[in-house]
Amino acid sequence: MILFGMNENLKRNLAIGGTTLVALYLLYGIFSGDGSAEVIDSTNTVKFICSETGRVFPIELTKDTPGFPLENPKTGNNTLWPAEMCYWDECGPKGGTAVLMNTFKDEKEPTHCPVCGHLVRFRNPKPPNYGSNK
């Protein structure tokens, strides 16, 4: 076999190179897939909030998910809207508060968190120090 005639440094470098190639191939497979991996599927779950009851529902979005509002599984009414999460003030330590944006209620005023009163906007950012004391 060819390996018998090689010096130890060359064998080690080939082993490292081969291992690196296998690792890169596996990473490519994980991150370039069709979205069927379990890790990727879990990111498709979105919190929705009912415009009538305020109840929050985690819904897994798929390519077949209809447009908004979605049907509330408890009432059968199309009242579920994507929730924005507030992590400011007292909302942060309890894992965030789901907020229904005023836009979905056809209200023109800015949306404020019903718990802490902080201004909430689409793609609401977390506070700069969020999670620093955990």
Describe the 3D structure.
With 134 residues, the protein is of the alpha+beta class. It folds into two domains: 2-38; 42-120, no CATH class. Helix content is 22%, strand content 21%. The protein contains two helices and eight strands. It has helices spanning 8-31, 38-42, and strands spanning 45-50, 56-60, 70-71, 78-82, 84-86, 97-99, 111-112, 119-120. Strand 1 and strand 2 (56-60) form a beta hairpin. Mean pLDDT is 81; it is low at 34-41.
Helix percentage: 10-25%
Termini Cα gap: 56 Å
Figure out the total of helices.
2
Average pLDDT for all residues: 81
Q: Structural class, please?
A: alpha+beta
Largest sheet at a glance?
Answer: 4 strands, antiparallel
- Low-pLDDT stretches: 34-41
Determine Rg (CA atoms, Å): 24 Å
Strand content: 15-25%
The ordered H/E elements are HHEEEEEEEE
The counted number of beta strands is: 8
Strand neighbour order, sheet with most strands: 2-1-4-3
What is the number of domains?
2
The shape is elongated
Summary?
Helices cover 22% and strands 21% of the residues. The protein contains 2 helices and 8 strands, in the order H-H-E-E-E-E-E-E-E-E.
Output the keywords.
134 residues, 4-stranded antiparallel β-sheet, single chain, two-stranded antiparallel sheet, alpha+beta, 8 strands, 2 helices, 22% helix
Q: What is the secondary structure topology, with strand pairs?
A:
Layout: H1 8-31, H2 38-42, E1 45-50, E2 56-60, E3 70-71, E4 78-82, E5 84-86, E6 97-99, E7 111-112, E8 119-120
Antiparallel strand pairs: 1-2, 1-4, 3-4, 5-6, 7-8
